[in-house]
Amino acid sequence: MPDGTRVQLTDVAQAAGVSLATVDRVLHGRGGVRARTVAHVQAVVERLGYRPDPAAARLARKRHTRVVFVLPSGTNTFVDMLERQVRSVGAWLGEQRATALVQRADVFSPAALARQLGALHGRCDAAVVMGADHPLVRAAIDDLVDSGIVVVTLVSDVPASKRSRFVGIDNVAAGRTAASLLGRFVGARAGRVGVVMGSRGLRDHAERLFGFEQVITGEYPQLQLLPPLEGHDLSKRTEPLVSKLLQAEPELVGLYSIGAGNRGIQAALERSGRAGDIVWVCHELTPHARQALVNGVAAAVINQDAGHEVRSACRLALAARSGERVLPEQERIRIDIFLRDNLP
Amino acid sequence: MPDGTRVQLTDVAQAAGVSLATVDRVLHGRGGVRARTVAHVQAVVERLGYRPDPAAARLARKRHTRVVFVLPSGTNTFVDMLERQVRSVGAWLGEQRATALVQRADVFSPAALARQLGALHGRCDAAVVMGADHPLVRAAIDDLVDSGIVVVTLVSDVPASKRSRFVGIDNVAAGRTAASLLGRFVGARAGRVGVVMGSRGLRDHAERLFGFEQVITGEYPQLQLLPPLEGHDLSKRTEPLVSKLLQAEPELVGLYSIGAGNRGIQAALERSGRAGDIVWVCHELTPHARQALVNGVAAAVINQDAGHEVRSACRLALAARSGERVLPEQERIRIDIFLRDNLP
DNA sequence: CTGAAAGCGCTAACAC
DNA sequence: GTGTTAGCGCTTTCAG
User: What is the average per-residue pLDDT within B92-99?
Assistant: First the structure.
């Protein structure tokens, strides 16, 4: 901040010896400007440390910024929570001259997801994508970015892509957290620990498993980790898997559920009569998980705040387009731990 | 929303049969308007469901909104973190046409705090106050509010006052959370549990103690709660207190530290050679608490996010003045639980 | 007590 | 390729 007064567009235009419109074109990459002029203006912007006034920009903007959320189809409660959150920020987004919209896509089919992303060209200004990390998906994201669409990944990252940001938690750390909690809650008892995941193919699940194994094998030698079961995030499939596990393993002292399908797991635990005795840790504070916590069936729930994630994705998507300031600390999604006592 | 288009100031003015300026005066309580006109305009605003456009309002506003944070003086690390956060949102506030400033006050002297609050009249538009809940303080807050200053309480509430909002956590729930964590971490071992607090006079400390006692006595009968020690939030005083406690109580299995002075507690625990063996739970993720967690001296840290609190207080203070929308979910401060594995 | 009118800093037509 | 200019919806003088 060279002097007391904020530097604004007119200052840049004057210093660069061009008009407001030209500066605006450069700043928004609208094209139709000589390469030399572009470079020159950019240099001046840089030198003067120009930052657009977000209030003025929003006020003047005619068209709404259209942001599309692409979420997994299916019956996942957490995804429904995300969708509800998108709806509930509608009015707030309206005030920022933006509109959000949810589309569902089959995440288990990368080709379908990629096709759906491809269809977004020209139909939105920003896309928030929750999907599997697959070469087809990555390519589709890169295409969107190349055509000027801002892409933010949500919950599960596609790190090799050109997405501008990832909104979600560090899943390795989340797995470690689950393990520490489970290990300490089990206490001195020795025994076996089961793991149920959606699929090894899902990046976030694999990462959580990795972190969980690290801590259990490294720090709780009295606990023996059983091979993970894959329940495809469906209660219909997790319930029989866990029932069978409970029968086969009388020594089971802990259970970690990495993905969805928790209603099935809860049912199996309750039916076995060993609920509360087996330390069960799961993810995402859905209404069912909440109830399991209150009933003492679940010992702890690791959560990522759906509302925070949606707001954060929106802010980052808008900021990427408008040059508005982002507060990194505000956008960091916490690994929330919920016990019966600190439920919101 | 009666029709597709947003209702704006001109609509209200037209419907009320007055000018823009008059509507503005009414909306901002600037006075100089006949009581009948005021009532009429307010009715129209209500009927039409008018909401000001925040971008336009901010752009047009000439004067910056001045918000003053009044924080406890002394050497409390958490308070320093709050102050640092205030500093770090300066640029962001600038974009909203606001300026924040920190003052320190002696919280242990209600009279001094009240006097300092009194001195704020005419020197700011909003005050964010962290202070003891005392009749003098309450009266000072009410005076500020009566003179048109927005008051937000921070961390420790003054519920009987006219403050417009409280930003902080539910401290009873925080105490319960600490107890559950401590109880489960101790496991099957029976023994005694110590408590160190700043003072019984501090509302937040008393509430935490209440929640903690509830859970320990109700759910962990094998744990015997010792009478709380008061260390005035100073390491100089907590260290000898805890040292003495450790000598007197060979059966000590858990320790809950409700307030500050954690460096002293950590030192005492480490010197005793029983660190890690005694389950120690404390509050606020200061650098020291963080280190204690990493070293395994502290089992868990309950936290309220200083950055979140400061941003939230600012948003609420500004929104109260401008009629801007607040997202209640976004302003809820979480009771964060940190283990070694989910540190930010 | 009330109204008219000049901006706030940027965007986006439209003109050159 | 580049410049001019009319707003965006509110706040705030300054007249009446």
Answer: 94
pLDDT of B4 reads 54
pLDDT digit string (tens) for A41-68?
999 999 999 999 999 999 999 899 999 9
Packed helices B171-186 and B203-219: angle between N→C axes, nearest 10 degrees: 40
Q: Check whether residue B160 and residue B44 sit in a common domain.
A: no
A212-239 as b/e: b if 16+ CB within 10 A: bbebbeeebeebebeebbbbbbbbebbb
Which of B220, B314, B331, B342 is most worth mutating to test chain A (most A CB atoms within 10 A of its CB)? B342
| CATH code of the domain in which A36 resides | 1.10.260.40
Lowest mean pLDDT among A97-111, A159-173, B232-246: A97-111
Nearest to A92 among B92, B325, B335 (CB): B325
CATH of the domain at A230: 3.40.50.2300
Q: Does the distance separating the beta carbons of A299 and B311 come in below 8 Å?
A: no
Q: How far is the CA of B60 from the C1' of D10 (A)?
A: 6
Q: What is the pLDDT of residue A125?
A: 95
Does pLDDT of B1 surpass 50? no
Closest partner residue to B55 (CB to CB) among A55, A215, A336 is A55
- The per-residue pLDDT for range B136-145, each reduced to its tens digit, is 999 999 999 9
Label residue A4 by pLDDT band (50, 70, 90). low
Q: Quick one: which of A232, A245, A236 has its CA closest to A72?
A: A232
A4 in a structural domain: no
Residues 281 through 320 of chain B touching chain A, CB cutoff 8 Å: 299, 305, 307-308, 311
Q: Are residues B186 and B210 in the same domain?
A: yes
- Residue B38 CA and nucleotide D7 C1' are separated, in Å, by 30
Residue A90 tokens read as 């509608």
Number of domains in chain B: 3
Please, which positions of strand D sit below 7 A from a protein CB? 1-5, 7-14
With CB atoms and an 8 Å threshold, state whether A342 touches B337.
Answer: yes
Q: Per the domain annotation, does B56 fall within a domain? A: no
> Do B312 and B298 have their domain in common?
no
Residues A230, A199 within the same domain: yes
| A192 has a pLDDT exceeding 70 | yes
Residues making up chain B, counted from first to last: 344
Nearest CA in chain A to B184: A185
pLDDT of residue B150: 96
Q: Residue B80 sits in which domain range?
A: 63-168+306-332
B134 touches chain A (CB under 8 A): no
Spell out the residues 6+ positions from residue A289 whose beta carbon is closer than 8 angstroms to its own: A262, A282, A283, A298, A301
pLDDT of the residue at A108: 75
Residues of chain B positioned with their CB less than 8 A from the CB of A89: 327
A113 and A224 inside one domain: no
Are residues A258 and A175 located together in one domain of the fold? yes
Q: Is residue A1 part of a domain?
A: no
Residue range A272-304, pLDDT digits in tens: 999 999 999 999 999 999 999 999 999 999 999
Query: Residue A230 in contact with residue A257, Cβ under 8 Å?
Result: no
> Are B186 and B292 part of one and the same domain?
yes
